Amino acid sequence: MTASSSFSVAGKRVVVVGAARSGIAAAELLVRRGATVTLTDTREGIDDEKRLRDAGVRLELGRHVSETLMSADLIVLSPGVPPRQTVIEQARKAGVPVIGELELASRWVRGRIVAVTGTKGKSTTTTLTGRMLEAGGHRVAVGGNIGVALSAQVDDSTDDTIHVVEASSFQLEGTDAFKPWIAVLLNFSPDHLDRHADAAEYAAAKSRIFANQTVDDWAVLNADDAASREIAREVRARRLLFAMEADLSDGVVIAGDSIVRRTHAGDQELVPLSAVRLLGRHLLSDVLAASAVASLVGVDPSAITRAVEGFSGLEHALEPVAEVGGVRFVNDSKATNIEAARRAIQSFEPGLIVILGGRFKGGSFADLREALIARRATVVAIGEARLLIHSALDGQVPIRDANDMGKAVRIAFGLAAPGSTVVLAPACASFDMFRDYAERGRVFKQEVARLAEEWSGAQEH
Question: In the prediction, which pLDDT does 10 show?
Fold first, then answer.
């Protein structure tokens, strides 16, 4: 059981910083637990203002007031709030405890936690793991960085609930006592360097997922990924490795036409590869990771297989969109960093058109050069990062520029030959042009649908 019986906020003044999904859930939870709650956000207006005020949450909008933070008994940060803001640092130096929303909720959930982190693949692995455990008959709540915030799951948490939680570096850096029963590190490459000072700080945030584990817990690790193995070098938990490439004598691997759990006693088939419905070889690695967790939980292989057969992937994650004039369009708007884009590019045959760009988060577009050249790819560059893309790739990869997604889709279609693929794999954040990666993906799909209508109409004349 995870819940901390000693942690109480009854009668305490708690300030929640950041009024997005997680912050709102934390504020409402804190009120129900007896705290006097102020929710502060730099925006002048937020969602659900009336509901929050009716629930007893005091709102402080437009700026963070230093006096409010300094007088708090506890500060809870939403994941999107950088912890080094001056007003937060001042409160911390004055002795006010500062924790993240994930940490807060984890102190009160009663069931066990399976936490999934990594640079790429968190949402797919978290969702598929939840489905596998549900297929195995377990009471499961899925959320965290996707779907429902962990704070919104606390009231319904029971001793037999398994909380499958996607945990980002932003969430993990605000943890203190967070202790997953099973912690999964899928992979690691530099990302979010617009928030973290450097790759080492980003890695340190990821490593928090293991910090409080003991020998009674499990760490599920990617044996193919040297960087994540290094992050987990001093993990105290028992280890279960998974690998698509490494030759493991003990772990979850591909053997013949199946994903198997290999032990010294032999192989146990978990999932036939024919059950996997996902595009992209790197997504198969996520299936291995989810299968490893399900195996630890004790889910029968037949239930694991049923879950895999029924899972065709997440929206915006190598999502097939349409075929227009023999050209396939694929939406990978969730590829918000260089490594994710590289893996997307490697998922397709030569003759690829890649829509690339947005708000740059760090890394180097030059790291995409080899994969692009190997697939004889052409890049359609969008957003603020266009100059960086040209600087890294000009002279080696053909590049065309587009001012908006509609133009990008049409330029890409004009460049593509029948039988080839256009993939949106931006390698960047979306905030220069869109609210988030989901809006970017939806706009891409809308523009493809418009293109399909235009093309179909042209064929009829």
Answer: 97
